[in-house]
Amino acid sequence: MHRRSLLGLAAAGLAAPALAQPAFPSRPIRMVVPLPPGGATDIWARLVAEPMAASLGQPVVIENRAGAGGMIGTEAVKNAPPDGHTILFHIASFVQTPVVLRRWPYRIEDFAPLGKLGTTPLPFCVHADLPVTTLAEFVAYAKGRHLAYGTYSPGSSGHAFAQALSDLEGLDMTAVHYRGEAPMLQDVLGGRVDCAFHSMTGSGEQIRAGRIRPLATIGSMPIPSLPALPRFVSLGYPAYFGNSGFVGLFAPVQVPAPIQAQLAEAFRGAMAQPEVLQRLAGMDTIAQYLDPVAFGADVAAYLRFWQALVERLNLTAEG
Question: Where is the signal peptide, in residue numbers (predicted)?
Answer without folding.
Answer: 1-20
